[in-house]
Task: structure prediction
Amino acid sequence: MREIKRLEYRTFLKYNSEVTIENVKVKLAREHKIKKLAPTDFQRETTTVWSFPNRGDWATHKGNYRGNWSPYIPRNILLRYSEKGDLVLDQMMGSGTTLVECKLLGRNAIGVDINPDAIMVARNRLDFPYKPLDEEYREPEIKTYVGDARNLNLIKSETIDLIATHPPYAGIISYTKNRVEGDLSSLNVSDFTSEMIKVAEESFRVLKPDKHLAILIGDTRKHKHYIPINVRVLEAVLETGFILREDIIKQQWRMKSTRERWRGKYNFLLIAHEHLYVFRKPGKGEKTTKFKHSIKWW
Ligand SMILES: C[S@@+](CC[C@H](N)C(=O)[O-])C[C@H]1O[C@@H](n2cnc3c(N)ncnc32)[C@H](O)[C@@H]1O
Result:
């Protein structure tokens, strides 16, 4: 891991007005035009089905980073599983949606991505003034690193209060055209699964006992048959000792992958959901036998 600080970002911004993620150009704003800093009519999700037809455009959130998650997802996770002043990790942060929500909600944060260009997008999205009237709000410390989710060597064990992360779905959407070594989006499903075990192990190491890991994962289809990547990721995470707390179905509204082009042409269903799993690391000395159906059962 290597920290990318404000000065490096400001220097980058001086000479670059955009970055290219795979084949999509993402503009870096010199100054953001922000219409609102929070969602209007926000209500915390209370069931295991989440659906956000309007993905959310408050603060600096934009849908133009490939496959980025709707800010409603980290907002819900942060409000349910963390407190103000906690330290939150997103080790595959992409455009930094989780970090922007941490800034708005007063959580300290660490963001990591394998692609240095992603860090510049994330830092750019965090680059807006924010001084809420809320007396309890303390400006959080937000750090960004270029690094590999499988080896978080600069994060000490048991220091993180919540992990909210969103890996590539194996190779469905490529992020760096194999340009960046270690990019999990260049892997086939089998290799991706083995590498996700390492991501789960690092998550287990850095998370404090009794704290949560939330991970969003989607599936794919090949030769007209379903490939449940989510099940592989579920098994990888349970393998490391986590307990499953929630399996949330997240409805997908705008699918930019090839799936969209198949509409009406084949006799199979379009995949329109993802799984948001929430796991809990057992507390210190906690007996897990009573959770025997929510832990590794094989
Ligand atoms: C689905 S995107 C995350 C999008 C993010 N939630 C957002 O809202 O912008 C997955 C990210 O994982 C990153 N990634 C791929 N392999 C990685 C690895 N080994 N370590 C850290 N990040 C990785 C990619 O560069 C990409 O930015």
Q: What stands out?
A: Residues 189-206 form the longest helix (18 residues).
